[in-house]
Amino acid sequence: MSNYRRAYLPGGIYFFTVVTFNRVPIFINENRVEALRQALRQVMTVRPFEIDAMVVLPEHLHCIWRLPEGDADYSSRWREIKKAASRQIGMDINARNERMVWQRRFWEHAIRDEDDWRRHMDYIHYNPVKHGLASRPGEWAWSSFSNAVKKRWYEEAWGDHEPATIVGMDCE
Q1: pTM attached to this predicted model
Q2: Sequence ranges of the domains in the chain
Q3: Distance CA 89, CA 17 (A)
Q4: Which residues have C-beta within 8 Å of that of residue 50, sequence separation ≥ 6?
């Protein structure tokens, strides 16, 4: 077992990368992305949190969450989201009775300040372009980019080239 320690900050803001098992492209259609959305809504009802940004790509996702004041438990939320989505997607089951949808772990980063938040927002929204899935962020359906445009956090034409804020970032 690794000696990895997670940063748990009550009321914190976190960037996450969550990857499918063996990077198999699971989120390839609206039904599977909707299963993930339903899992998120289900968990948010019981254990509230806010999503500032999110992008779902075929074999991974990135998002930024805001946890409620006094609450630092994002790990159990991810466990429940993964379980609920996996039940709906219904992949093969291994010897440990686990559905082969997700890697066991996920990567988190505690957002430190406004600049850190902006860089990670840009990273999330530019990710479909980075992976060659779209030529601009607004073309990718499974992203919060259009909501961010409505909030005036971005211009609609943003992201036609790699933003300077994310050059060299690799959160895959």
Answers
A1: 0.93
A2: 13-165
A3: 19
A4: 65, 66
How far apart are alpha carbons 149 and 159 in whole angstroms?
A: 12
Which are the contacts of 71, defined by CB distance < 8 A and separation ≥ 6? 10, 11, 49
Query: Is the CATH code 3.40.50.300 the one for domain 13-165?
Result: no
**Which tokens go with 148?**
């961010």
**Tens digits of residue pLDDT in 37-75:** 999 999 999 999 999 999 999 999 999 999 999 999 999
CA 1 to centroid of chain Cα atoms:
25
Integer Cα distance of 93 and 99 in angstroms: 4
Nearest to 7 by CA among 115, 113, 107, 124: 107
Task: Output DSSP code: residue 122.
Answer: H
